[in-house]
Design brief:
By secondary structure, this protein is of the alpha/beta class. It folds into 2 domains: 1-67; 70-203, TIM Barrel, CATH 3.20.20. It has helices spanning 5-15, 29-38, 48-57, 75-78, 91-103, 127-135, 157-177, 193-198; strands spanning 2-3, 19-23, 42-45, 63-66, 82-88, 108-113, 143-149, 184-186, 203-206, 211-212. The strands form 2 sheets. The protein has an 8-stranded parallel β-sheet. The chain has a two-stranded antiparallel sheet with strand order 1-10. It starts with a strand and ends with a strand. Bound molecules: pyridoxal-5'-phosphate. Residues 23, 25, 46, 67-68, 189-190, 205-209 line the site of pyridoxal-5'-phosphate.
């Protein structure tokens, strides 16, 4: 895989002030540094081991974000190496992130993953479970919840639009109900980022579209 420079530049322009989180699971540090040269500053990894290897070999000024399913027992390895965890999908994980953040004397920014389309194969809380989680946030002193993350079903992007819209509405409702000021909506990937942008996406996780074989 090589970086498609023209495509990356075009995407950065199209995204405007939204953040492009380059999903870099397909590439090595060389391509990450190449992306950075073109103007990408946020890199999303979905596996702990790969993140650690890339983190060690990376010499740039960008930051890594964790976007994949995270096991509790691995939080300790990444807590001081990522600037945002997108994928909080259980109360236990939230507890562990808080505990490790405390140990490192830092406040960890996170997003709560919502399984908005209620897919069995996807992680995240259901809409109904949200209240329960948000009611407990006061307990966590070293976590800052910045917003929501979702993955749309793998269907025609136009049909997925209703899920982006529902996630945007959910953020508004939660802010209202819990008197919060969350601003982040992590949604949209290579195939559906335009639809996600229409409904308030602020961080767009794009992988495949940045590279060519
Ligand atoms: C790989 C990945 C993406 C990007 O998907 P593409 O289809 O390659 O754009 C987004 N989010 C997560 C969690 C991923 O693992």
């Amino acid at each position: 895989m090589i970086v498609n420079e023209n495509m990356v530049k075009q995407l950065l322009e199209e995204l405007g002030d939204r953040v492009l989180v380059a999903a870099t699971k397909y590439v090595d540090v060389e391509q990450i540094e190449e992306l950075e040269r073109i103007g990408v500053t946020h890199f999303g990894e979905n596996r702990v081991q790969a993140l650690l290897e890339k983190y060690d070999n990376y010499h740039g000024k960008g930051s890594f974000e964790f976007i994949g399913t995270l096991q509790k027992n691995k939080v300790k390895y990444i807590i001081d190496k990522v600037s945002l965890i997108h994928s909080i999908d259980s109360l236990g994980l939230l507890q562990e992130v808080d505990k490790q953040a405390k140990k490192h004397n830092l406040i960890m920014p996170v997003l709560i993953q919502v399984n908005i389309a209620k897919e069995e194969t996807k992680h995240g809380f259901s809409v109904l479970e949200m209240d329960d989680i948000f009611l407990q946030l006061d307990k966590f002193t070293n976590i800052e919840v910045r917003g929501l993350m979702m993955m749309a079903p793998n269907i025609d992007p136009v049909e997925a639009e209703s899920y982006f819209e529902a996630t945007q509405q959910l953020l508004v409702q939660l802010n209202d109900k819990f008197n919060m000021e969350m601003t982040e909506l992590s949604m949209g990937m290579s195939n559906d980022y335009r639809e996600a942008m229409k409904h308030g996406a602020t961080r767009i996780r794009i992988g495949r579209a940045l590279f060519t074989d």
